[in-house]
Amino acid sequence: MPSKAVRMPERTLELPDEPIPESAEDALYLWETGAQKESRGCLGDAINCYRKALRLDPNVESLYIKQVRELQISPKPKISSTEEHSQNKKYGKGHEQEQEQEQEHSPDKNDCCWLLDCYPNDILLRIVEEVVLQAPESWINLSLTCSTFNKLCFHNSVPYKAFAEYIYSFQHYSPNPPPATPNVIDHARWAGNYDRMLKELPYVKFQGVYISIVNYLRHGVAAEGSLSFVSPVQMVTYFRYLRFYPDGTCLRLVTTDVPNQVVNSFTKEAAIPMSSVCRWSLGHPASPHQNRLQITRTTDKYNFVEELIIAHQAKKLHHRLKWLKSYSFDSDGQRTDFSLRNEKPFNFSRVTSYPPPSSSLNPSLNP
Hints:
Blueprint: H1 22-39, H2 43-56, H3 60-73, H4 81-105, H5 121-134, H6 138-143, H7 147-154, H8 157-168, H9 194-200, E1 208-219, E2 233-244, E3 249-255, H10 259-262, E4 276-282, E5 292-298, E6 303-313, E7 316-329, E8 335-337, E9 346-350
Antiparallel strand pairs: 1-2, 1-9, 2-3, 3-4, 4-5, 5-6, 6-7, 7-8, 7-9
């Protein structure tokens, strides 16, 4: 396997010490293309590009590594002292005028820096709560505006409670739960610590797509009986996509198309070929299997069931779906289990064009 792929800019830079032959330039371009495809998960296409590049120039990998290092250590262009002095002389008078105008219009230090400084914390908390309900992804952005909002966003239980009530109201739980409280979620279990509740109680995310990139090797594409060793093995790459909806439905797709060709049009209304609409549900919060996610779909002859586990990915909460089981039932009730040998976990990918779940679907969220 070639060295680790490094994302390169579209423009190819020439090495400064000696010109690169035309064949080496073509090989370097093919190697960069292969590195880009490898970073997107298309290992089969990447290997083909690497092979073509090595046929043109066996030392193409060394050229690629050398070019990457030069791009990493290349210093930024500096302005000479003579040029800097001439620029200061040319623009110095205008710059001084701008500074004088800024000083004239600058507010007094005793005045409030902006209008929201005039409001008490209870009103600002209400603003934070509305931001969480209307656009949860803006919660972090709001905390970065000033120190006051940072304290209100992450050092107060109100935003965590608002987000917990918001996100868990759209979750669908197993139709056969064990005996539990009427509200499904036992809030007394976390004793009002909604921060810990959001970390421990799994939930499904809606503003994006869960993507699984599957790569595996199989026998090459040589004709039957052929003694050719050109392609002894073949790298197979395909993608699994899952998009969840608050109404309990899930859009499922298995294809060889890369994400940038699928994600923007991955909706139930688009009716993508080979996609299927499924039902999803989580394990009951009071059960030991609360982190299990079940996806079911039905055809004329079979009922398919896929079970996954919601897990963290580093610091990203509930960001990954790991395979647990995949099986089906026929019309006679006979079960058939499917192999998961080549399957890979799903990772959540945020899509900004997907709208957040509307609070109008849950009247309890509206004040």
